[in-house]
Design goal:
single chain, alpha/beta, inorganic pyrophosphatase (n-terminal core), Diaminopimelate Epimerase, Chain A, domain 1, 3 domains, six-stranded mixed beta sheet, five-stranded parallel beta sheet, 14 strands
């Protein structure tokens, strides 16, 4: 029997969403702005599809930041209503300066609430925005409160949650409640399988970025040697492996991950639950991978088209996804060979591509770098340096909060920072990198210092 939203969502959060719906009901056109990453792109698409269903005209786009220039452009557009998804909670001062009504649908740790905009953030109501709700599920919740027909947008919402790495260890909290209900309503179907792309097994291993196998990912000779050892034909598609071959391959890959120091959650993710979204004719994890490649390489419009159901977009996105994987692998190979720079409490590396830094940091941290130190990726640009920082749940459990560390350290060098305790970012003036790293190292050291025992 179908459960209602009231059975699945904290009452205060649902009430806040309904305040936003009152604004939607009063306009004919909606301006949608999502964060550029997979979570934000899928959020914007969920909103766009819901607005179309509701008979509203819309203009949807994505952005990397909410800065003064973006606010100026939005003011010049004469919008009736602006809805921001997967961004806004950390920039309320700027958002509140817009001249039209605004709804913020976000999951990042908010510094405060707002009386001037409709601020829909699960973290305000006791839901963990790093594990239990992301931008796309918060946005999907909003559209479900608008119209229950939007349960069929579950696949796009899940693609965002996967892009935000909230699937690792299994969905929990609000994510789990909504996705389990989507399965019960047949909007999603669940199956278990090996975490490899649908391709001949050698190609699938070579192109595997998550999980990342040292000596195999991006290295055909390594994949060929492994398959020869297992006496498996490298040309056989992954989905045609016989059960005994699949068992032997899975066992050896798990052993490889353990030997290279991958965390337990990453080893468990070798065999994962996959979700088929019948309405969109795609697996949620596959959609997430395509959108991720488009978002990181500057094809935001194409990523949005994928989520809006444009089947022709997938053919164009395939080459972009492969290029993205190849670039990631090149940086990972470099880190694998040379190692990161280190300080007492953090490790870091440099990359020329700021949109890839977070992904590289996340994968390296989970699969082969020192798990006791958070990892920072720095990209030195013409005037500013972008920083992406990643950690593990084990470090967060010990007291690490990267959002606080980067926000405080960046502020000391006239920059901005914030995000989640486990994944955060910052932007600082060029030339301030060493000072920033020193400050972050000191703050992380204090956060991870042993706490005195309770008397």
């Amino acid at each position: 029997m179908a459960r209602s939203l009231a059975d699945l969502v904290p009452k205060e959060l649902l009430d806040r969403a309904r305040k936003g719906i009152d604004l939607v009901d009063g306009v004919s056109r909606v301006r949608i702005l999502g964060h550029y990453d997979p979570d934000g792109t899928t959020s914007a698409a969920v909103l766009a599809r819901a607005m179309l269903r509701a008979g509203k005209a819309f203009h949807a786009s994505t952005s990397t930041v909410i800065d003064d220039n973006l606010v100026k452009r939005l003011k010049e557009e004469s919008n009736e209503l602006v809805i921001m998804s997967d961004m806004g909670s950390g920039q309320l001062d700027r958002v509140e300066g817009l001249s039209c009504p605004v709804i913020v649908l976000d999951h990042h740790a908010p510094l405060r609430d707002s009386e001037k905009v409709v601020h829909v953030n699960p973290a305000l109501f006791g839901v963990d925005g790093t594990r239990e709700a992301c931008g796309s599920t918060t946005t999907w919740l909003f559209t479900l409160a608008l119209d229950e027909r939007n349960w069929d947008l579950a696949g796009v919402a899940m693609a965002g949650a996967i892009g935000d790495m909230q699937h690792l260890g299994g969905f929990s909290g609000l994510n789990a409640a909504l996705f389990d209900e989507a399965v019960a309503r047949n909007a999603l179907s669940r199956e278990r399988g090996l975490a490899l792309i649908a391709a001949p097994v050698e190609e699938a291993l070579v192109r595997c970025v998550i999980p990342y196998f040292v000596g195999i990912s991006g290295r055909p000779e390594g994949a060929r040697k492994l398959l020869a050892e297992l006496k498996i034909d490298p040309t056989v598609p992954v989905n045609e492996l016989v059960p005994e071959e699949r068992r032997r391959l899975t066992s050896l890959l798990a052993t490889i991950l353990l030997k290279q120091g991958a965390d337990a959650e990453s080893v468990e993710a070798l065999v994962k639950e996959r979700y088929w979204a019948a309405n969109d004719g795609v697996y949620a994890d596959e959609l997430s991978a395509y959108v991720d490649g488009c978002a990181r390489l500057g094809y935001g419009g194409l990523g949005l088209s994928l989520c809006l159901g444009d089947k022709e977009a997938f053919a164009r996105a395939e080459a972009i996804r492969k290029e993205f994987d190849d670039r990631l692998l090149a940086y990972l190979h470099k880190l694998e060979a040379e190692g990161p720079f280190t300080k007492k409490h953090i490790q870091f590396f440099y990359t020329d591509e700021p949109t890839l830094a977070g992904s590289v940091a996340q994968i390296a941290m989970n699969y082969f770098l020192d798990p006791s130190k958070p990892t920072l990726g720095l990209s030195v640009m013409e005037k500013t340096t972008k920083v992406s920082a990643r950690a593990t749940k084990a470090l967060v459990a010990k007291g690490l909060d990267l959002a606080v560390a980067l926000r405080k350290a960046a502020a000391e060098v006239s920059g901005d920072g914030g995000g989640h305790n486990i994944a955060s970012g910052a932007s600082v003036p060029k030339g301030k990198e060493e000072k920033l790293l020193t400050l972050v190292d000191e703050i992380v050291g204090r956060q991870l210092a042993p706490k005195p025992a309770e008397p």
